[in-house]
Design brief:
Elements lengths: L18 H25 L3 H13 L3 H26 L4 H19 L5 H15 L3 H11 L2 H12 L1 H20 L4 H23 L12 H5 L21 H10 L2 H21 L2 H8 L4 H13 L1 H14 L6 H20 L3 H26 L8 H30 L2 H36 L1
């Protein structure tokens, strides 16, 4: 790893009387920093979906080619996420996150000068690789600074960052069109969002802190003194394991952990649903449902921002109502999503299509969020990056690529009906896997209580 990405360690321990105040201040700053940083990542990720109608027209691309571009970025993101999140276990969270954001912004600037299909393929693959540097540091920061009893609620606050970023990209791009005109769509869709992201990369460096022990503080479990679940208990693992190589940690705490595999494939089906709707929403609403550009932008905005209240409520409910169990609200959301997809598919009314798009957008991020929180609670804190990496790899390689490339192939071969049937099957499989996760966590906690 590059030396400039390694964490800085404070040589002196914080005096005991200062620890509570430092934890409160540094924890808040870190949470705010990863919120703004991850929001910026989505500003320069979701902007690509808004560019696809113009890209399709200018380069005369088929739906399959548009899907291939989207999935190329997502597959590169998934592969890179598996590596980058594992490497992040050994890196400085703020440096790692800021560097990836700066490089993603640079690639977006270059996208504005693309003139050929394969040029865009190369650039979106590079973009996907750098985009993967945002999520690992975020989950590592959450795991190290937020106690288990508040993690659902506070992680929900962080999680809506990508909804905020994905939602405000439409107004940012719209502002770009108003200033530069539709003939300069490259500036509006790629380069203006990149400029915004560069500013937020500097904010990340300013706000996000290192891990508590690197700041001279005790670990979050030592500080909080709370009872944690059976899997997160650091005392249950050998002390030397935390200092082993990232490959050792990845192999022993991710690859050999059935719960990590459960969360990974559950997330894959969630991503299939998300990208099957989100990536094709602009083309589907304009070309099939006959929406105007303005009406499509409103639906796109609602799809992203409708998730904000539901995600916050889901985090609170998982903490307070289900006592730290994350899967029951996820299962409920997926059942409702099943019927929401049907409504989005078969409705012809502009109002009803927008409502069902908002319903799916409101709820799809609930199981995605809760599965992601669950994935950092099925491993010890020092293996959070590895768990996140494997989940991200599976989610994007199998889930997001199916929601983009395979969905596009369905459109070109059997029509939109085939794509929507695929999403309904994914919803059912997601429910099954979330149930398996819940049963596994309950079993392990029961064994812990029996031993005690």
């Amino acid at each position: 790893m590059f030396s400039f990405l390694k964490p800085r360690q404070v040589q002196e321990k914080i005096p005991p009387e200062e620890i509570p105040r430092r934890y409160k201040v540094m924890g808040f700053q870190s949470l705010l920093g990863i919120f703004l940083g991850y929001m910026a990542y989505y500003i320069i990720r979701n902007n690509f979906a808004l560019s696809t109608p113009y890209l399709q027209e200018e380069l005369n691309l088929s739906a399959t080619q548009i899907g291939f571009l989207s999935s190329s970025m997502l597959i590169a993101y998934g592969v890179s996420k598996g590596v980058m999140s594992s490497l992040a276990d050994k890196a400085s969270p703020k440096k790692f996150m800021a560097f990836g954001l700066l490089m993603s912004a640079l690639v977006n600037i270059m996208l504005g000068f693309g003139t050929a299909f394969w040029m865009f393929v190369i650039l979106v693959i590079i973009l996907g690789a750098f985009q993967a540097m945002g999520v690992g540091p975020s989950y590592i920061t959450l795991a190290h600074w937020i106690p288990h009893k508040r993690r659902g609620t506070l992680s929900a606050l962080w999680n809506i960052s990508h909804n905020v970023g994905g939602g405000i990209v439409a107004p940012i791009v719209g502002f770009g069109f108003a200033i530069f005109g539709s003939n300069n769509w490259q500036i509006a869709t790629y380069q203006l969002p990149a400029a915004v992201a560069i500013i937020f990369a500097l904010v990340v460096l300013l706000l996000v802190k290192e891990r508590p022990v690197d700041e001279g503080l005790p670990t979050i479990n030592e500080f909080s003194g709370e009872e944690i679940n059976a899997i997160e208990d650091e005392k249950a693992v050998p002390d030397a394991d935390e200092n082993k190589s990232f490959w050792y940690i990845f192999k022993n705490y991710a690859l050999k952990n059935k719960n990590v595999w459960y969360t990974s494939f559950a997330d894959a089906f969630n991503y299939m649903i998300r990208y099957g709707i989100l990536s094709w929403l602009p083309i589907y609403l304009i070309n099939v449902k006959q929406f105007s550009q303005g009406e499509m932008s409103v639906a796109f905005f609602i799809f992203e921002w409708a998730a904000i209240p539901s995600t916050l409520l889901a985090g609170f409910i998982s903490d307070k109502v289900f006592k730290g169990y994350r899967m029951p609200p996820a299962i409920i959301a997926l059942v409702i999503i099943f019927f929401g997809i049907i409504g989005y598919w078969v409705s012809d009314s502009l109002v009803m299509v927008t409502i069902f798009a908002g319903l799916v957008g409101c709820l799809i991020y609930v199981p995605m969020f809760l599965v992601s929180v669950q994935s950092i609670e099925v491993v010890p804190p020092f293996a959070v990056g590895s768990s996140t990496g494997l989940r991200g790899f599976i989610s994007y390689i199998f889930g997001a690529s199916a929601g983009t490339t395979i969905f596009g192939l369905m459109i070109d071969t059997v029509g939109w009906n085939g794509g929507f049937l695929m999403l309904l099957i994914a919803t059912i499989l997601g429910i099954v896997l979330c149930t398996l996760i819940q049963l596994s966590i309950q079993k392990q906690n029961k064994l812990k209580n029996t031993v005690q």
